[in-house]
Amino acid sequence: MHKFWLPSLQRTRFFSIRHLSCMQNGRVCPCSGTKSIDNKPTESEKPLRWGMAPVSLIADDFVTALQVLSDRHHMVTACTSYYQSVARTFANKHNIPHVYSSFEDLARSKDVDVVFISSLNPFHLEISRLMLDHGKHVLCEKPLCMNEDQVIQLIGHSHSKGCFLMEGIWSRCVPAYQYIRKQIEAGALGEVVKVNCTLGLPMQKVVRVMRRSLGGGVTLELGVYALQFAMWAFGYAPHNVIAHGKLNEDGVDEEANIVMKFGPEREAEIMLSCTKRFDNKAVIKGTKGA
């Protein structure tokens, strides 16, 4: 399990159950409110049953994190993998009762309500559509899809099926986000006018990041965190984006400098690299301070 998860699991357990409780009983809840983790389920309520498609390192982290929550609310009931032996090893480790030999079999399972998808990026759309086709709610690892057209298609498909669809931006579940949001809404920063963010890690040995065919690139690997943070801070999408960077020999972006224009004198500057280590900081500047 990655070390950065450990300190935050206990702090995020309440926020996590709030986000996911609106899928209780296998349906999307239209309410704007949320349930407390201490609420006892009624007789008609059943735990949300999760499937892992496929098993992976991040799926291992996710299942470990779910174990912080009560099995009255969440339980992992199924998994699959490209290799049956890998799925069985994963199931034995986490006491998962059902192991399926294909994504199709998991999608058809009556023992699964929602599926966590952590495949390679190019397969997110295909697997998500498959699960939605069978009435399964979907929590898909970032990036949700490879491009805007695919995202629009997938969102429309989830609406047509009446199923929950969410991109797995784990940082959004960190309590610090909620604290910052309260400060912004309370006017502590004044009007947000600038966001600066740097994200850089040496990842040359991570094959999936450096290969075009595997959906690689620093923007999809790290940049999504910075881009969503900027839009979250301003509260709306930019009207203009200017980007330049550096491609590796496979045509994958290994460096990117992005400027997002949100209005007159309102912008975000983002620096990304998967070959260099940056200070990895995000700063929100307002008319009253940062």
CATH topology of the largest domain: Rossmann fold
Give the uncertain stretches in residue-range form. Answer: 1-38
Q: Name the CATH class of the largest domain.
A: Alpha Beta
| Strand residue percentage | 15-25%
Major beta sheet summary: 6 strands, parallel
Q: How many separate domains?
A: 2
Assigned CATH architecture of the largest domain: 3-Layer(aba) Sandwich
> If you average the pLDDT, what whole number results?
88
Distance between the termini: 34 Å
Percent helix, as a range, is 25-40%
Overall geometry comes to globular
Domain GFO/IDH/MocA-like oxidoreductase: 177-289
Protein name: Trans-1,2-dihydrobenzene-1,2-diol dehydrogenase
Keywords: Oxidoreductase
Domain Gfo/Idh/MocA-like oxidoreductase N-terminal: 50-168
Describe this entry's structure for a reader:
The chain is of the alpha/beta class and 290 residues long. It folds into two domains: 48-168, NAD(P)-binding Rossmann-like Domain (Rossmann fold); 175-286, Dihydrodipicolinate Reductase, domain 2 (2-Layer Sandwich). The chain is 34% helix and 24% strand. It contains nine helices and eleven strands. It has helices at residues 6-20, 57-66, 84-94, 103-108, 124-133, 148-161, 175-185, 207-210, 218-234; strands at 48-53, 74-80, 98-100, 114-117, 137-141, 165-168, 192-200, 240-247, 253-263, 266-273, 282-286. A six-stranded parallel sheet has the order 3-2-1-4-5-6, sandwiched between helices. Helix 5 runs parallel beside helix 6 (148-161). It starts with 5 loop residues before the first helix and ends with a strand. The model is unreliable at 1-38 (pLDDT under 50).
